[in-house]
């Protein structure tokens, strides 16, 4: 397209540990996985032990877990894996093709306030070893750390060459495609929220009654409106500022832009999820990473037991 020739080596491995345990007549199953742009030698004995212990912990806690009360309540998004909510419910709406077609709720929102001042969201292809790490995008454009939301203000979309030309800006190195059989389009790479001014302990202590959403599995998102439903396999109940009991099989329902506005605290413990996620869009799948610090959303709808 530009007369450029680039060569890139993109290793990719993933290791799953799937566990089923039985106590009496009750059976529980869960899993954990490690993934990234690594060779097989990256999976040391220490990492294998970590993976096995993580799978055991996630599975065994389910024997004592209950479904939480249903209703609207504060939700603490755990650091790391909760980044999938950021990716799905917010990140897709910041891909420039959706905004160019005016199908994203973030269309025409550049320069406008979308979150509290302590919220900064980036999409960073330069994080070495992550599934979303790249040296160049699939159009040959250099990659970067793109600031999407800068201290609460919408700063940029994710651009491929077509959208960059439309908006008269430079491409952000976000043109990605599944293979040579597909056309590039704006896609996320490694999407995360940067550290905030609070601590995890302060966040939990501030919650009178709510939950911690810890291990996400699947979900559904309407990119245009930003409405979402996510299923959470593992979590914790918070009562009077203390973690009191494990919970399981939780649905959380909300709206991405509204949840972003309702972020009231962000901790200083950002981490990227160590598992392997693959993002689908318009029939194409690409590897991605996402992360989050411990984050408090003041209200979301939780599907649990009616009590």
Features:
307 residues, alpha+beta, five-stranded mixed barrel, 6 helices, 17 strands
Commentary on this structure:
This is Metallopeptidase TldD-related protein. Residues 173-193 are annotated as: Disordered. The chain is of the alpha+beta class. It has one domain (67-307). The protein has six helices and 17 strands. The chain has helices at residues 45-60, 83-91, 96-100, 161-167, 200-205, 256-261; strands at 13-23, 26-36, 71-77, 121-124, 145-150, 153-154, 175-176, 185-186, 190-193, 209-221, 227-239, 242-255, 263-266, 271-272, 277-281, 284-292, 295-303. Strands 4, 5, 6, 9, 14, 15 and 16 form a seven-stranded mixed sheet that branches. Strands 3-10-11-12-17 form a five-stranded mixed barrel. A two-stranded antiparallel sheet has the order 1-2. The chain is globular and about 65 Å long. The model has no long low-confidence stretch (mean pLDDT 94).
